[in-house]
Write a structure and sequence with these properties.
Length: 375
């Protein structure tokens, strides 16, 4: 019987191949195709929840399948959006709801939501707001020729080189983000785009002026490459999340510890965990941390601040954000998971087959992992 860590490694060693296998599953391929072909036709929250197939696909993608019956609840969350910190979704402890609402952002984008492209529509929205703030009437015909010209051309751009070479597009985007004084410094702006925003230490993220990070987010060539100017987050991100969610669920059928490890890794790699309170707000993340640190289940009922203090004292989040730190933490979690969940009967059966003694009800793989952790 393979240990939880080895099962986890078999999946993560080549995640592209693992995801590819899931994408080829008939059900996944069929549902993904339906979503891609039909979500663009949705122009309202009512349309969205009315199509049960689309709505359930999206809910599963964000790990909310157990709430796909609660349409009134989700309608309320989507109607209030996420712009207001006190909105319904933002006040929910489980941040998956706010993430869902931020993707299906009908509150801000209305009928454009499902066809919204940040590099196109997002930049135009910013330019329009800047123009209005400068005193231009929103229905000004000239403002509309300018906006339409950008929309007509930006989708043909497939690289940073092409973008910087087209002065009309480049200057428009710079003005949209309030970066007019840096227009002449294309070398610097190239570095901003090439560094992206995924790394907290990227050039854009290190600037005091947040407009640079916003610019690199709108024109996110670092993340989306040649698809940047046509990247539809609603479609691309939701389908990718659905596939990954299916991968984790399939792994959980065989070993729930593997599913938890994959989920924790995904959240860490997405930059979604930087404090104990974020862990405590997510039941799955809390289970991983409690298991890895040997914290008893009874602690889950203790005062939240007390729990957070305990976790903060035992976890270095900066170290955990590094690949080696995450790997070591996953080794520890999976080893402790096997200690707590390996069946003595099953292990005993394995020992009989191989005529080797088994100590403390643990498989050889678990014992090897524990010895590495001790070293």
């Amino acid at each position: 019987m393979l240990s939880t860590y080895l099962n986890y490694q078999l999946i993560t060693r080549d995640m592209t191949t693992s995801i590819g296998r899931v994408e080829k599953q008939p059900m996944v391929a069929r549902e993904s195709a339906y979503f891609q072909q039909n979500i663009g036709k949705v122009t309202s929250i009512e349309d969205f929840v009315k199509d049960d197939r689309l709505f359930k696909f999206a809910m599963k993608a964000f790990g909310l399948s157990d709430m796909d019956y609660a349409k009134a609840f989700m309608v309320k969350a989507m109607k209030e959006g996420v712009a207001d910190p006190d909105s319904f979704a933002n006040k929910l402890t489980d941040k998956r709801y706010a993430e869902f609402v931020a993707t299906f952002n009908f509150a801000s984008r209305d009928e454009r939501t499902t066809n919204y492209v940040e590099a196109a529509d997002g930049v135009v929205d910013r330019y329009t707001l800047a123009a209005v703030a400068a005193g231009v009437e929103i229905d000004n015909p000239q403002l509309e020729k300018i906006n339409n010209d950008y929309l007509a051309k930006i989708g043909k751009v497939t690289s940073i080189d092409q973008f910087l070479a087209n002065d009309d597009l480049y200057v428009y985007a710079m003005k949209a983000h309030g970066l007019e004084e840096y227009i002449s410094n294309k070398t610097f702006m190239r570095e901003i785009l090439e560094g992206g925003v995924t790394d907290p230490d990227s050039l854009a993220n290190r600037q005091k002026n947040e407009a640079f990070a916003e610019f690199a987010t709108s024109l996110n060539f670092a993340a989306y490459g040649e698809k940047t100017t046509t990247y539809n987050k609603v479609i691309e991100d939701t389908v990718a999340k659905y596939t990954r969610q299916t991968l984790e669920e399939d792994a959980g059928v065989q070993n729930e510890g593997v599913r938890l490890a994959l989920y924790f890794e995904r959240k860490m790699n997405a930059g979604g965990i930087s404090s104990a309170y974020q862990i405590l707000a997510d039941p799955a993340l809390s289970q991983v941390v409690r298991t890895a640190l040997g914290i008893p289940e009874s602690m889950a009922t203790a005062d939240v601040d007390r729990q957070a203090a305990m976790i903060e004292s035992k976890i270095d989040f900066d170290e955990l954000s590094e690949p080696d730190g995450l790997r070591k933490f996953m080794q520890r979690f999976t080893a402790m998971w096997d200690i707590q969940n390996t069946s003595n009967t099953a292990v005993a059966s394995v020992s009989v087959l191989f005529s080797q003694p088994v100590s403390f009800g643990l498989s050889t793989d678990v014992m090897l992992t524990l010895s590495k952790l001790q070293r």
